[in-house]
Amino acid sequence: MPIVSGDQTILLLTVLIGVVLFGMWSETRGWGKALSGALVILLSSMALSNFGIIPHSADLYGSIASFLVPLAIPMLLLRADLRRVISESGSMLKAFSVAVVATLGGALVGAWLIDLGQSEAHVVAMLTAGYVGGSVNFVATSEALQFDNPAQYLAALSADAVGGIVFLLLLFAMPMLAVVRKLMPSRYEGERDCSTEISPDEEALDFSLGGNGNARFSAYGLVLGLLLSLLIFAVAMWLSEWFGVKNLVIPAITVLALLVANFAKPVVEKVQHEFEVGTVLMYTFFAVMGAGANLSDAIGAAFPILIFVLILVAVHLVILTLLGHLCKLDMAEALVASNACCLGPATAAAMAAGKNWKPLVVPGMLVGILGYSIATFIGMGMFWSLI
Fold first, then answer.
1. Alpha-carbon gap, residue 130 to 141, rounded angstroms
2. Residue 196: CB partners within 8 Å, gap ≥ 6?
3. pTM for the whole thing?
4. What is the CATH number of the domain that holds 37?
């Protein structure tokens, strides 16, 4: 029984926000800048849950994932210039293709090294789909293959949750490795802002998440940004219900936010601090992700599958680095594309925002949505190749 139970919603939220604040504060210190605030948040919340301070699951976690993430996405996209996005998405698509190949290579190596028993083809197929698209593809592939082994299904889910956190930790740590920076140099690393050209409006809006900013605060601009994001969220929910497609919400939010950003510029120009607020909301989501990693479950019945997932992500990152070097990929683009491939568009956008790679937020979202559309087919293809 954790010290803070899942029923103590306000106290649990207080702890999560405290973890977010600690991560933001860490970015004002040398060690925090090296690790990144998102990585500090992931590690901190994972430690708190596995040492019995906060629970691994709670209704609050589901509320944050289902409400704050869709609310944050429009805030991260309201400054997106479609012309620039289109011109830069080609290199991101190339990086995403490399990431998909890396996942397939990791899955094949893992299946060769680890014996997962009679359900091996099903488990490998589900996890392959999950690491090309996301959890929605994991579930869709299991349903498409009519997988009816509840124990193995739950074990795969537990291993996937822990493996995903390990992958994210490694991904955030990669820019600190000299060999990675040497093989895949990045034009985004080491810059105050990821744009080569900074407009006066962007300069006025920019301030540090660590609290050192000097931008003029406008309550009107902030509330306007919240209102636009809520409207986009509401319309996306309505479209999802109207079409009867539950998983349409995130793609619809992305499209609607891009339309507002590019065709309602007189309104968007009055919005202030939306990117920073969106980043804070995504940081809260990272705290929830870290808290959900139950190491004891993964070390128990799910251990063989966890080893498979760890091999998959390790091989994925090695292939990504080597092919990235051969294809002359930008390190930042490769890492965001890898994130979009393995974990989905939301975490890709959060990583790009947290690392201050702002031009990669929208391309990362777009290739992540592409991953949703192809991952189930790739998972099924993996199944038929293994039986």
1. 9
2. 187
3. 0.74
4. 1.20.1530
